[in-house]
Amino acid sequence: MSLAHELADPLQVRLLRLLRDEGPLSRAELGDRLETPRTRLSAELDRLVAADIIAEAGPAESRGGRRSTLVELNPRLRFAGVDLGATSIDVEVVDARMETVAAYSEPSDIRIGPKAILHRVNELLGKAKVEGAYDRLDAVGIGVPGPVSFRDGVPVSPPIMPGWDRFPVREFLSREHGCPAVVDNDVNIMAIGERHGGVAHSVDDFLFVKIGTGVGCGIHLAGEVYRGSDGCAGDIGHIQVDSQGPVCSCGNIGCLEALFSGAVLGTQALEAAKSGRSSSLEERLAANGTVTARDVALGAMEGDVVCIQMIREGGRRVGGVLAGLVSFVNPSMIVIGGGLAQLGHILLAEIRSVVYRRSLPLATGNLPVVLSELGPRAGVAGAAVLASEIAFEQAL
């Protein structure tokens, strides 16, 4: 069974997406949903059954005449989703309905380079195979924490990924696993995951904002991710917010990411603990030897004023950037995810306040600003969905 060499018609892609998202459907239902003549649909279904890509799943409920036959994606289909963070690796193998078959998560360091990281990814996928999660993969999707040329399947000058520039990630994974592979920016795959199975389900126009080690924005317009002409749309972490601010990892001055991110918040927390300005952080530093963004979240929950101020200041900076995007894009929803989403409703309230205050009322009157529903799974889930998409479209 090989999706990459069997598909050649946009109708098939729509059909397979429908079966992936909704499960078994009757031939009659598919004809109605796809608005396709019965003879053409029947021929396509028969071809896909013969190719072992879809399978018949018994008779459908009667609609008053001869009972139609249910069809479904072949239950043996398997897709792999990989989400590489600055400090983590998440891998999942899913079935045709995007249900998790195997999942692995472990700390890592993206700075050790592509060969070491991708070798570990292959080991984890190999482990899933040994444990019976799949016989063969039909596609692999991977997200990386830096700019990506989606067309070429390579990272391009990623600021926090030394050694990854132009490394052939797509080619490496495709060759290793004998199936199509696709590479995207990590925030884009988070947006795809949230659209497929999270709070943005069925929302066609939304922004997914990842706030973690870095800051980025997945732009979802008209039901699809908007990547821009070269694949780097949504890189809001490198929008300048303070011309007198610190030097960013990209080399520019005063970028949003240089003023608010997981690393920056950790540094600010350490300074506040050492100076004694925050008793909560000072206690945690004494107990643990270090403090992190999570300690700031915990301090804020306990009412520590300095921790609350740090979060609010970061929220104001993010909200200011998003207010401009709302005026420009007019999305239906903004979803906040990434590691710093753990800062919770203090951060969310500050972002909302700035966005609602600084954007036009027409753009914000029906604009929810919400936390990610999938949380840390958003990226790996989106990578698996993207893998299925590339498998469905490979031969087009």
From TrEMBL:
The keyword Kinase applies. Keywords: Kinase, Transferase. It comes from the Bacteria. Belongs to the ROK (NagC/XylR) family. The lineage of its organism: Bacteria, Bacillati, Actinomycetota, Actinomycetes, Micromonosporales. GO terms for molecular function: kinase activity. This is Sugar kinase.
